[in-house]
Amino acid sequence: MSLSSIFQTFLHFYFNYHYVESASSYIHSTFARRVQFTLRIVISFLVAGFLAYKSPLSHQTSQGFLIPLISVMSLQETFGLTVAACFQMLLGLIPSTIFLFIVQKIGLGYHDYLAAELILLVSSFFIAFICSQSQTRKIPLVLCAIFFATIVNQRSIPSTFIFQLLETFVIGMAIAVLVSLTIFPVFATIDIENRVNYCLLNLQEMQKSITKAFLHQDKISAQISLTRTSTIEEIILTAIGPIRMKLVETRFEPSRFLQRIFNRRRRHIINLTIQEQDDLIMAWFLHVRSMELMVKQCRFNEYHRDLIQELEAKLQHICLCQSVIISTMTTSSSITKDEFFHQVSDLERAGEALRSTYSEARLRRLEDALESAAIIQSEDYLSHSFFLFQFDSIIRLFTRIITTNVKKFVPAKKKQSLKDRLTPKWSRLFSATKCMIIVGIGSIFVMVSPLATAFENGQWIFVAICMTQGDSVGGAFTTMKMRLLGTLLGAMWAYVTYLAVHDDVYQTFGMLVPWILVFGYIRPLPRLNYTATVAMITPILITLGRIPYGNTLPAGNYALLRIEENLVGIGVAAVLTLIIFPVFAIDLLKDNIQSTFQACRDNMNSIRLIYDQLFYNKHLNEMSIDIEKEEQNIQSFFDVQRNHISQLITIQRNLIEHASSEPSFWWVNNKCSIKRYKTLVQQEIDMFQIFYCIDTALMRIHECSTNNDVQIENIQIYPINDDFFATFHTELTTLSDRLSECLNLWSSYFALTQRRSHQFFHHFICSKTKLVENDLLKHEQKLVELHEAIYRLQSQHQDTVHKIMEHYLDRLTQGDALSTFVPYMNNNETDSILNAISAMYFFDN
């Protein structure tokens, strides 16, 4: 290996960017990423610790232990997330600091229980109302807790005490940001690109495996080929999962600047934004999954065997062309723009050759059927047209990425009316009131002298109550369990540390470093993230927090006291969370499910309306965009709807986990198990996939009709085809109505099984209709009607095929040539429209 290669590998490892062909499985493994993250935490802790205890700053503040504690808490896995966490904390900290400084300056709260309590309640209500999410309000509440615990229990404090406290928080956050930027930096932007490259390679392999299965002549061989596909799909889902969350993190990073630096060799080839790369991966994944679905349902009969003999070479050539493009997109090798365009042109030509071969094959099947009076089964025609339509859509995805400087249409955001602005936000008001009451009750451990004496000023009980609040009962309980476990582990190590090194600062750092290494490695795991964080900061708090007091606070008692205070704080918080305006995750989950069903209904209605516009030129007053403008309008319109559904499903997964830990899940109107809710999520994902593929088909129809305004009219000049599209429109409308009725019924079930208090406080519904068990039986009738609509659609297509065959036979009998009455014979755009319609038929079935 040359010196330049070693240096390049080092740069890739240090800055965590790499291209797939040069990436070592060891250098860029999950283990290496976690080790880097752990080292960042350790370095952040040591820098903050030495700054707090071995620099002039140590003589300026008595809360020096907060600097390493805040630096460890603030440091996140990516630079964008670290900046986001610090920014959100500062949004709450700065206004709170100014308010508390004014309070201290005018002398309110000094050794005055009532005045201090009143001000605490006001400030906690203000913080909870402004910071609507529990994660953003915790640190400002902790600041208030420390401030009031200090001014009530200490005789004299400097007038700038609150700003000194803010200074320690800011220094800790600044160290975290600096370390995150300079020590093995992981940018969310580059992490997404790494994941995209990884997904591109695996999607190519998945598509190859599915194509190989499609080209088999029997179902058993095809199923064997698909076994590997399931494994690849799990790998892709694991890689795609975090991308949506990391897109939020990229808002706090100079994404385009980072892309220019790290992708300077291939910017002239592909220059997609992070969002566009995510859209590319998700679109390709949905198309490939649709192909897999078709292969699983494919009838490996004579029609299939004859067809694959003609298409095999073309399909393999397309896969080869795609592999070349994927290799170019994921490697660091230099290539000119003309060479890349040539590769894309090869793929386009391969796709055109496949379309032409398939059209010729269909024509020969049609001639054979007309000569032998054989019956063409619509299932065979639809399934194969659907499979090849997915291939065509994937090719179009890659040809579209070379288009640059195209400004996407962004639907205008709906402006809030004055009435909406003035309408009270009841849910936020109740949430802020709940937070205020919990903080007020927790403050008695600080402000009531007997309790404060018994619990060493009681401030850590107060802190535990502030830090265990959640957006729902399930979320709070999950946080409490993690905090309790982390506190127990951290307190034990703090006691061991004291026995080993006593009060020596340097040796204390030496004992804490291996502990931070262990839990820093565990911290990236989603289920153990908060537990690992608490386990890391607890020994920092206990050991460094007691050093200024020396032997006046024995370490054993100090560690046990922290455990006791956390137990009391968590116990009090658990009781208060349940009895004061409880918001159960199971109710929020049902709200989310209703919103998801409504989004699905809206998407289905949009599909029907745009179909009407394309084939019948009906005016769409219900649409929020004018589809006459350009293709980008419809595409962006569908993108907004799909992104909304995707976000709802992501939130739904988290709510299911929180709901499973709630007592309400065990006794309140709940007949669905966690397993059923997870099944429901999977069914929503399947609907999401169906809507995407139908949307893609409509986009293809719209593009073809835009390229040549007379294409759809040309298709409809044949009477049989007029009947075909009219009948399909009728059945599509019926299917849409039946699906909407089912979704409405299921939405009403989830609405009726919510608690009365939730409907009153969150939806302001004073009366509630009781759930009638017999009404639930209606869903069986609705499902029967839905299946009947699907069956009619299948029968209608088969009948239409028979009528078309009779019409073609009559024309042949009259001496006409096939080219004069078969729509797709001499027109590629017409052929594409018919294939798109067939794809819609297949998915509707």
TrEMBL record:
Q: Name one Pfam family in it.
A: FUSC_2
Q: Does the keyword Transmembrane helix apply?
A: yes
Q: Please give the organism.
A: Adineta steineri
Query: Cross-referenced PANTHER family, in alphabetical order?
Result: MULTIDRUG RESISTANCE PROTEIN MDTO, P-HYDROXYBENZOIC ACID EFFLUX PUMP SUBUNIT-RELATED
- Keywords carried by this UniProt record: Cell membrane, Membrane, Transmembrane, Transmembrane helix
One of the record's GO cellular component terms: plasma membrane
Q: Spell out where the chain crosses the membrane.
A: 37-57, 78-102, 114-132, 139-157, 169-188, 429-452, 458-477, 484-500, 506-522, 567-589
Q: Where is this protein localized, as stated in its record?
A: Cell membrane
Which lineage is the organism of this entry classified under, starting from the top rank?
Eukaryota, Metazoa, Spiralia, Gnathifera, Rotifera
According to the entry, every stretch annotated as the Integral membrane bound transporter domain falls at 452-575
| Name of the protein this chain belongs to | Integral membrane bound transporter domain-containing protein
Concerning InterPro entries, the annotation shows: Memb_transporter_dom
Note the topology in the membrane. Answer: Multi-pass membrane protein
